[in-house]
Design brief:
3-stranded parallel β-sheet, structural constituent of ribosome, two-stranded antiparallel ribbon
Length: 140
């Protein structure tokens, strides 16, 4: 299944995606930088910035936990949090997820679908995942 992420809400899209992955489907998400986060820009930036800074709180030489900056990796990390990653079925399900910024050449001609339960609609506050990634220092 190929999903165009433009105009979808991050959490809702991630929950629908994780359920389909556990059912055995392989899912490709395009335009990950256009997935929306609801809430204010300041709140969203503070939430993800805190996660990035968490690694250096206890021991600066410690290498974890790792949190991504790029939009497609933020989406994959969100889906990973909704899967039973410590069990083999969760790990194999997570391997079936691919996410991309923009639309790669091999997916230009293929038909994409929308998830009606996860569409953005008329929510007043929101910010795109690509904007948060740029604020966090991602280069894409």
């Amino acid at each position: 299944m190929i999903i165009d992420g433009e105009g979808h809400i991050l959490g809702r899209l991630a929950s629908v995606t994780s359920k389909k992955l556990l059912e055995g489907e392989e899912i490709v998400v395009l335009n990950a930088e256009k997935i929306m986060l609801t809430g204010s820009k300041d709140w969203a930036y503070a939430k993800y910035k805190q996660r990035l800074d968490r690694a250096s709180i206890s021991n600066p030489r410690d290498l974890g936990p790792k949190y991504p900056r790029r939009p497609e990796e933020i989406f994959r990390r969100t889906v990973r949090g909704m899967l039973p990653i410590k069990k083999s079925k969760g790990r194999t399900a997570f391997k079936g997820l691919k996410a991309y910024v923009g639309v790669p050449k091999e997916f230009n001609d293929l038909e994409t679908s929308k998830v009606p339960d996860a569409e953005y609609g008329n929510i007043k506050k929101g910010i795109e995942l690509g904007e948060i990634s740029k604020l966090l220092g991602a280069k894409f």
